[in-house]
Amino acid sequence: TQGRLRRSGGSRSVEALFFRNYRKFHGGALKVWDYFNHTRAAPNWDAWIQFGPRSCWDDSNPWHAASDRVLGDASHLEPDVFFVAGRDWRSLDQHPAAESGVPVINLIQHVRHGDETSNRFAFLERKAIRICVGEEISQAVRDTGVANGPILVIPLGLDLEILKTDSDAHRDVDVLIAGLKQPQLGTELAEQLGSREGSGEWRVEVLSDLIPRPEFLERMRRAKVTVFLPNLSEGLHMPPLEGMALGTLVVCPDVPGVEYCSDGFNCLRPAYHLNALAAAVTAAHSLPMREAEAMRERAHETVILHSLNRERAAFHDVLRNIDQLW
Q1: Please, how many CA atoms are within 13 Å of residue 226, restricted to the half-sphere of its CB?
Q2: Whether the Cβ atoms of residue 128 and residue 104 lie closer than 8 Å to each other
Q3: Torsion over CA of 293, 212, 193 and 296, rounded to 10 degrees?
Q4: What is the pLDDT of residue 2?
Q5: Do residues 225 and 237 touch, judged by C-beta distance below 8 A?
Q6: Nearest-angstrom CA–CA distance, 114 and 189
């Protein structure tokens, strides 16, 4: 790294300061954790993080594994780069170096950043190097016409090491419904599937409460078909991609922001209503073995394009060129 980031002129590491208000585990927090680790893995870089005072410190907080990099008060730190996501801008504004021209990397994980009614929209006018986790999100940000600074796309990456599964894994659940975001619809779907002719012997499980991530991954690993019920618009929505990695046949309705899902190619992507979802589950179970396996193979190819190593390599390119981008 050259230019302003070599302020000390010596062998000092380039330091990035992250911010988070952690309430509970979700995909957005996991992705910030990934970028925190990407930064620490870059040659001559180091990363620190300051949490909001009301942050939760239970076992779900990924930074338990890096407590030596957590600062109760980072006001003494003179970072070379700030890293923010979501509403972390508010924490950045409290730092003494907020107005000093320090480069800011802004991770954008949802199409709602481009919505004028969103509480994140106003942050687009702040100068930053913006990294969007998908093309649809990038386009939503560009279409606003107010984003200040370069807009880059780095497709979201998964840690494939923890998503390994045997090709002949025992799948004793016929249908898993991931209904945390739409619990009522999940219950209705389970009831409709149970009443369908020929499906009376299906074992259907509904997840409508938050469970530890390892348990959630194991439930998908055991399911023949997994139905995902996302919000009506999404950004970073990793579960269907995780499902593809774990070899379950994925049914995910067509919503903005889940751009890696391709109907009939790597998953089934029905319209977002009860009857269409039920029909897609039945179709998934009716696929001949050869077609089902072909869909799983194409899903695996999709997953490879979203590896954490690819994400890290792309982000390291950003760090190497941060002076030019800024």
Answers
A1: 27
A2: yes
A3: -10
A4: 36
A5: no
A6: 32
Half-sphere exposure of 56 (CA within 13 A, CB side): 11
Alpha-carbon torsion 217, 159, 270, 117, what sign?
positive
Residue 190: DSSP 8-state: H
Q: Tokens standing for 205?
A: 């499980």
Closest CA to 217 of 164, 285, 175, 281: 164
Please provide residue 57's backbone torsions phi and psi, each rounded to the nearest 5 degrees.
-120, 40
- 32, 149, 171: which is closest to 91 by C-alpha? 32
Cα–Cα dist 20/23, whole Å: 9
Cβ(1)–Cβ(44) below 8 Å: yes
- The model's pLDDT over 145-181, given as tens digits with 9 standing for 90+, comes to 999 999 999 998 999 888 887 766 789 999 999 999 9
Rg, the chain, Cα only = 21
Instruction: State which amino acid sits at residue 141.
Output: V
CA 14, 88, 30, 22 dihedral sign is positive
pLDDT of residue 3: 39
The full DSSP string for 272-307 is SSHHHHHHHHHHHHHS-HHHHHHHHHHHHHHHHTTB
Which residue's structure tokens are 């890696």? 260
Helix 274-286 / helix 183-195 crossing angle, nearest 10 deg: 50
Dump the DSSP string for 87-136: TTHHHHTTSTTTTTT--EEEEE-BGGGG-TTSTTGGGGGS--EEEESSHH
Helix (H, G, I), strand (E, B) or coil at 267: strand
Give pLDDT < 50 ranges for the chain.
1-4, 6-9
